[in-house]
Design goal:
This protein is of the alpha/beta class. It has five domains: about 200 residues, Rossmann fold, CATH 3.40.50; about 150 residues, Rossmann fold (3-Layer(aba) Sandwich), CATH 3.40.50; about 110 residues, Arc Repressor Mutant, subunit A (Orthogonal Bundle), CATH 1.10.10.10; about 80 residues, Orthogonal Bundle (DNA polymerase, domain 1); about 100 residues, ATP-dependent DNA helicase RecQ (Arc Repressor Mutant, subunit A). Helices cover about 45% and strands about 10% of the residues. It contains 35 helices and 17 strands. The strands form four sheets. It has a seven-stranded parallel β-sheet, sandwiched between helices. It has a six-stranded parallel β-sheet with strand order 8-13-12-9-11-10, sandwiched between helices. The chain has a two-stranded antiparallel ribbon with strand order 14-17. β12, α13 and β13 form a beta-alpha-beta unit. α14 packs antiparallel against α15, α31 runs parallel beside α35 and α34 packs across α35. The longest helix is centred in the middle third of the chain and has 19 residues.
Length: about 725
């Protein structure tokens, strides 16, 4: 039993936090801690998890040791706690960011009894001098925040977390409270076992967050879609998650140039910058944080209104925790994810080189993410099922699948066939093996186990039923409780009691086919315009008018039409309707120089067309692209300005001449002028130059292949034609 200052819990709640009543199980959890029992808390983000250890720490004798994984998280929580007490010494953190003088100050406050909460990184706990110091002080209890970091099956595994129990025992026997916002049944067991807390009081809140809306969209023109979405929600706070630091920087910059108050946040930025960005977000000086998963743990901002995933996360635990930062105050919370299977393949590549067991775990977690993204079943139902919780409502009215349901069909016979195949295969195989049997596909595994001799072999071949079809059936069988995926055995499918009952007496089960995102583009073209594909919604009438205007302009200037504006640029104009020169420069392939040179009649034509046809322009779709700041392109342009030979430029960057010319073509196509005459004069004689120049001036096409054919492949090389085309387009088009 902990020594507790004489104060009732409700009075303490009011005194320190200003709340009149506890939320959910908070009071029972705090009582369990105060009575000296080990306590395990599973509570979704926004449920008031931190208060479960903060309040008992504030009213107990001694100092509570809070193990926390992130320095930013510690700072945020220490600042919050200091607001509740009369002096700063009430809460401290101990980690690698402190100077020796600061560490002495922290230890002094603890020794004098001022400090009620000490936040430590697990790495700091392993240091011998810290262990020695903590042995000699009065510790009220240990709290382990983000306890899922203990489990290698968790989405954020930290090996040093697995050493905590041994360290606690070395310091002294005191109660432990472990807390997490996301934990599958498997992870829960792993945490309890590793911490030696099998006898702990367990408090598990529902994972259902009724105020959150879940949606998955195909990953096409992502930057544009995100800008449209954020602009529709102007003034609201949001977080956008990307997998790589590079993408975080690029997207934040794209949002900024499109008038959105956004900042990047990732572990590669220095601590001061990260802290400033975090404070600006909390103070609402900026609306949007573009971040890697390094951002968000413990960020106490209740009114984040949207969380967007530019890239699909590595696991459903990660997804749930990140989306859970939306709508923590119970208000609006929109969770939008962009999905392409290409992203999954990239994540699988990242796993290469890791230990085999870790790769297998990672693949299983990824498969669950794919199942969630592609399913047509209620997303809330799928998420809650993953965390071991049932959801009985037929329509949650708060996810894309429930608001726009796909047609359901009778799946009784299909589920029966899947269960029979699993039974025949002795419950020793994964979903892909079951589907291979049903589709009559003979694999190396199938040969080894003679699957082709099974009764169910090839029984699933029927009309247009394919692997995706049977995948959907398997997922429905899992969600309906007929099958259990044994994660510990890397995804082997087992038939449950409900499944066995179903086989004895089959009944109607309606299922829907999964979404097909295979057409989704994994990435946009470099430059971030994301527009101008054929069939992408261009105004056909305006497009024809603009093509005629290009021909007219080209004729007047005695130039080929492609030099004025490419078809890609014209198509985008017929989507975006730019009506002034500034807007025109945001169209693909139209730099300021080209706009100035050719643009006036085009914007005048578009403005007149818009007015006459009363067109409502999609201004939120005009995505300004960031000037390409790629180090390589800058180096090439600067080197050409210094008149270095192209061979030297290519050699310095380890490029082939072919690669260098491709880079130059990209630079020129984006509207930047480069002067490579000094090099061309050295490698192509004057007569040849004139002949190629005249060809491109008169040709309807800028195709290199056609130019070679026309000018003679024996007389010219492809490299010479490309060099002359770069010079021609740069001089006349830019």
């Amino acid at each position: 039993m902990l020594e507790v200052e004489s104060i009732t819990l409700s009075t303490a709640l009011q005194k320190f936090f200003g709340f009149n009543k506890f939320k959910g199980d908070q009071e029972q959890i705090i009582t369990s801690v105060l009575e000296g029992r080990d306590t395990f808390v599973i509570m979704p983000t926004g449920g008031g998890k931190s208060l479960c250890y903060q309040l008992p720490a504030l009213i107990s004798e001694g100092t509570a040791i809070i193990v926390s994984p992130l320095i930013a998280l510690m700072k945020n929580q220490v600042d919050a706690i200091r607001n509740y007490g009369s002096e700063d010494g009430i809460a401290h953190f101990l980690n690698s960011s402190l100077t020796k003088a600061e560490i002495l100050k922290v230890k002094g406050d603890i020794a004098s009894g001022k400090t009620k909460l000490l936040y430590v990184a697990p790495e700091s706990l392993t240091k011998e001098d810290n262990v020695t110091f903590l042995r000699d002080i009065h510790i009220s209890f240990f709290a382990i925040d983000e306890a899922h970091c203990i489990s290698e099956w968790g989405h954020d595994f930290r090996p040093e977390y697995r050493r905590l129990r041994a360290i606690f025992e070395e310091i002294g026997k005191v109660p432990i409270i472990a807390l997490t916002a996301t934990a599958t049944p498997k992870v829960q067991q792993d945490i309890l076992k590793n911490l030696g807390m099998q006898a702990a009081d367990i408090y598990k809140s529902s994972f259902n967050r009724p105020n959150l809306y879940y949606e998955v969209r195909p990953k096409v023109n992502v930057a544009r879609e995100i800008i449209k979405y954020v602009k529709k929600n102007t003034g609201k706070s949001g977080i956008i998650y990307c997998l790589s630091r590079k993408k975080v920087e690029e997207l934040a910059e794209t949002l900024q140039v499109n008038g959105i108050k956004a900042k990047p946040y990732h572990a590669g930025l220095d601590a001061t910058t990260r802290a400033q960005t975090q404070d600006q977000f909390l103070m609402e000086d900026i609306d949007v944080i573009v971040a890697t998963i390094a951002f968000g743990m413990g960020i106490d901002k209740p009114d984040v209104r949207f969380v967007i995933h530019h890239d699909i996360p590595k696991s459903l635990e990660g997804y749930y925790q990140e989306t859970g930062r939306s709508g923590r105050d119970g208000g609006e919370g929109n969770c939008l994810t962009f999905y392409s299977y290409d992203d999954i393949l990239k994540l699988e590549k990242f796993m290469k080189g890791k230990p085999v067991a870790e790769q297998e775990i990672g693949k299983q977690l990824l498969l669950e993410t794919v199942a969630y993204a592609e399913t047509s079943v209620c997303r809330r139902k799928v998420l809650l099922h993953y965390f071991g919780e049932g959801y009985t409502e037929s329509n949650c009215n708060s996810c894309d699948n429930c608001l726009h349901p796909k047609t359901k069909f009778e799946g009784k016979e299909e589920i029966e066939l899947v269960l029979e195949a699993i039974q025949e295969m002795k419950e020793k195989f994964k979903a892909k093996d079951i589907i291979n049997v049903l589709m009559g596909t003979v694999t190396a595994t199938g040969k080894a186990y003679k699957h082709f001799e099974l009764e169910t072999f090839s029984k699933g071949i029927d009309g247009d039923k394919n692997d995706k079809y049977w995948n959907a059936v398997v997922r429905h069988a899992i969600i309906n409780g007929f099958l259990l995926k044994d994660i510990e055995s890397y995804g082997l499918l087992k038939i449950t009691k409900e499944g066995k009952d179903f086989l004895k007496k089959p009944y109607s089960v309606l299922i829907t086919l999964d979404h097909d995102y295979e057409g989704a583009d994994a990435e946009e073209e470099e430059g971030g315009h994301g527009g101008g594909q054929k069939g992408s919604g261009a105004d056909a009438k305006l497009f024809t008018m603009l093509k005629d205007l290009v021909k007219k302009t080209a004729k007047a200037r005695n130039l080929p039409p492609y030099v004025i504006f490419s078809e890609v640029s014209l198509e985008e104009m017929a989507i975006q309707y730019p009506v002034n020169m500034e807007e025109l420069t945001h169209i693909t392939g139209v730099g300021p120089g080209k706009a100035q040179k050719f643009g006036k009649p085009f914007v005048e034509t578009i403005a007149k067309y818009v007015e006459e046809n009363e067109i409502e322009r999609p201004m939120d779709m005009v995505v300004k692209s960031v000037v390409n700041k790629s180090g390589l392109k800058v180096y090439i342009i600067q080197s050409i300005d210094r008149k270095l030979s192209l061979e030297d430029i290519a050699g310095a960057k380890g490029l082939s001449m072919n690669d260098l010319l491709t880079e130059l073509e990209t630079i020129v196509a984006s509207g930047t002028r480069v002067n490579i005459s000094y090099y061309i004069d050295q490698v192509i004689d004057e007569e040849k130059q004139t002949e190629v120049y005249d060809y491109f001036r008169e040709s309807e096409s800028d195709s290199v292949a056609e130019a070679l054919k026309e000018l003679g492949e024996n007389d010219y090389t492809e490299e010479e034609i490309r060099l002359m085309r770069i010079k021609f387009l740069s001089e006349f088009g830019n």
